[in-house]
Structures are given as structure tokens and as C-alpha cells.
Design a protein that fits this description.
signal; mainly alpha; 2 domains; single chain
Length: about 220
């Protein structure tokens, strides 16, 4: 996310320097996209029990949240909308701050005590309010982030289904091997019975010959 953030900040600075009177909604849409991506990454890290993985993400997203009033101004949102942006900014600071607090605590206890699902719900609620305020052009810029989140979920589901299919195939393979083993054991048993019968049959002529000899002697 670091490279994406750097590009975003560069575009933001250039836009501010231009001071064009026309509304520029793309930075606002891009900010929404970046915060959404950061929310996804932080949630995944905490859900996986590896909060440290979100360290850089949480540091970077702070810069994006900080820029929200500026990009809202560039988008020429109404005065009331810009006030709401400030409220949303505070909410996002507080929610992401709960994640960050765990990292600064640096203990497993702090990570265990945090309800990361509740934190994620707060962030999603704030992002939903922000999304409702985005002009159409900004929504077009923000769309890739939501699509990426959906694609990521689809990939996880596909991987899960593939793993289940692999387990099923392995079980079928084991069953087939077991059946082959049983069949081989059965064939071996029949072969042993056949050999024994042949052996008994070979003994019979000797027995008959002995019986003839005894009869002749009498």
C-alpha cells in the first residue's frame, strides 16, 4: 500500500498547487478506495492473529484520513457535507486508533482483548456514510477497491472448495487402494486354497498305490 499512498499524496499535492476552480472529485474517490483497502488489510491481519502485519498499513492510512477535508474541499462538496466529512474523519481516526493501540501495547493480551470485528464494523459504517456522499466521478474511482475486496473473498471461497475437493479425491484414492488391497488378499487366499487342493490331489495317487500293494501282498 506504501507505493499507492505515495502516488495518491503526489496527485493530491499537484491538485492543491493547481488551485483550479473546477471540482476535482477523483482524489476523494481515491481516498475512499485507500481507506477501504487499509480496512481490509487490517481486518485480515487481526483476524489471522498477526496484528504486526498491519503496522505499515495503519501508519499509511492515517495520512489518507488526514487528507479527507482537503479532498472534500477540492471536490467542491457543500458546506454541510464537508462538516460531515470531518465527523467521518474523527470516527475513522478513533476506529483505526483501536487497531494501532494494540500494536503500541505490543502484548498478546491486548490483541486478545480487542474485538476486531467490532472495530471493523465501525470502520465499515463510517465508510458507508462517506460512500453516500461521493459524486459519481469519485464512485467510479473508488469502485476498483470494492471489486478487489469481492474478488479476494471469491478467491478464498474457491480455495476452500478446492481444498475440500482435494480431500474428497484423496479419500476416494485411499478407498480405491483399500479395495485393491482387499481384492489382492482375496486372490491370494484363493490361490492358497487352490495350491492346497492340488497338493491333496497329488497325495491321493500315492495313497491308492499303497493300497494296491497291501492288497497284492495279502
Amino acid at each position: 500500500m506504501q507505493r499507492t499512498l505515495s502516488i495518491f499524496m503526489l496527485v493530491l499535492l499537484l491538485a492543491a498547487a493547481g488551485c483550479t476552480p473546477a471540482p476535482n472529485t477523483k482524489p476523494l474517490g481515491r481516498a475512499f478506495q485507500l481507506v477501504t483497502m487499509a480496512a481490509d488489510e487490517a481486518h485480515e491481519a487481526f483476524a489471522a492473529g498477526d496484528p504486526e502485519r498491519a503496522h505499515d498499513t495503519l501508519h499509511d492510512v492515517g495520512e489518507v484520513i488526514k487528507s479527507l477535508p482537503l479532498v472534500a474541499s477540492q471536490a467542491k462538496l457543500s458546506a454541510d457535507a464537508q462538516k460531515q466529512i470531518v465527523t467521518i474523519q474523527d470516527e475513522l481516526y478513533d476506529a483505526f486508533g483501536e487497531y494501532d493501540g494494540v500494536l503500541h501495547a505490543g502484548t498478546e493480551e491486548a490483541a486478545a482483548e480487542l474485538d476486531h470485528e467490532a472495530v471493523d464494523a465501525k470502520i465499515r459504517a463510517s465508510l458507508e456514510k462517506l460512500k453516500e456522499m461521493l459524486p459519481a466521478e469519485a464512485l467510479a474511482v473508488a469502485a476498483p477497491a470494492e471489486n478487489a475486496s469481492g474478488a479476494h473473498q471469491h478467491e478464498e471461497e474457491a480455495a476452500h472448495d478446492h481444498a475440500e475437493e482435494a480431500d474428497h479425491d484423496e479419500a476416494a484414492h485411499d478407498h480405491a487402494e483399500e479395495a485393491d488391497h482387499d481384492e489382492a488378499a482375496h486372490d491370494h487366499a484363493e490361490e492358497a486354497d487352490h495350491d492346497e487342493a492340488a497338493h491333496d490331489h497329488a497325495d491321493e495317487p500315492e495313497h491308492d498305490e499303497e493300497h494296491k500293494d497291501e492288497h497284492a501282498a495279502e
